[in-house]
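User: I'm putting together notes for a lab meeting next week and I want to include a structural view of one of the chains we've been expressing. I don't have a solved structure, so I'd like a prediction I can at least talk through. The sequence is below, exactly as it appears in our construct file.
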Amino acid sequence: MLSGKNILIGITGGIAAYKICELIRMFKRANANVRVICTKNALNFVTKLTLQNLSQNEVGVEEFELDEYKPEHISYADEADIMLIAPATANTISKIAHGICDNLLTSVVCAFRKPVIIAPAMNCNMWENPIIQKNLQKLSSIGYKILEPESGFLACGYEGKGRLCSLEKIFEETIQILNSTNSNNQKKYVITAGGTIEDIDPVRYISNYSSGKMGIALADEAYKNGNETILITTVDVERPYKVIKVKSAEQMQDAVNKEFDTADVIIMAAAVADYRVKNKSEQKIKKTCDDELTLELVKNPDILKGLCEKKQNEMSKPRDVKIVGFCAESENLLQNAKEKITKKGCDFLIANDISRKDIGFSSDYNEVTILKKNGESKKLERASKQEIARQILKEINE
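Assistant: Thanks for the context. Below is the predicted structure for the 398-residue chain, given as structure tokens.
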């Protein structure tokens, strides 16, 4: 089932560490190659020799136990197809969430660019601590898969939520993620997010209210589905996939065009400013006695339309790339969206109603209508932007 797959298991210092011995057996029976990293405290619950015998590989503990000149945290990260941390203590979860690399396990996670599963196990009061919950939410938002613990009688004597989830659940989730990341099914997604910024002078600019949340949610979902994901954004964001930071519409156009030839799906979720200042001042514009200041504006490049034209003109044969545009309207949503998809020539257009306060700009929720090039449309009712992103990707891939 898992022949040829390399699974990296991180074990931290929780009583449930002993259960991972059986999980290693399950992966080995499925013909996976298993490597194990432990924190020092994990060895209080399970021995290094036991884990080595079960995995048939050396077990990593110390960061600088090197038989050869090869940085261990990089080699572990490069060789594995997936990493799972079970049990994951509150301490290790918090370190990962804040980028702390003070042992081999946390250093490997920091360098890991492929799917990561985290299966927490801890005292129920620790699980309910808002700081721990915030750290888990942060990890989930950047693409880590969190397998929540189960409720029951805990080793510490408490009754509540905190027991490591079943080994079968961890095993099945690992298989599902590895299947979705199969190179034969993997696609390259290029997604834009945020509002572009057009300088007036060194301290002033023209922009819009876009938070970038919808585009980032789309990139998160594409990555979770095992795809190569590139996010081109005006927003500062840290993610396990590639993020290209840009500022202006012209910079965004250049970045998207560089990825065009190898992209399978391009989603233009960014709010690109329609105009920029014709003659940007290199120095701060001083206030004068005049009551008015006139700025001469020129049109920015139409990135979406340019991509669609490029798709059609590629060596007289259209490229097999799906191009998805976004349409933000404050009135006549569907009428304007239908005109836009015809004018731009994209394969799909996602129409947003920005007049509503409960969705759209800066909100964590959205409600959209997906228009297709063939004239069909589908409305997605109000939901979290993460859920809307999941449904959008499902629709464009059917």
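A couple of points you could mention at the meeting. The first strand starts at residue 6 and ends at 11. The CA atoms of residues 88 and 191 lie 32 Å apart.

User: Perfect, that's what I needed.
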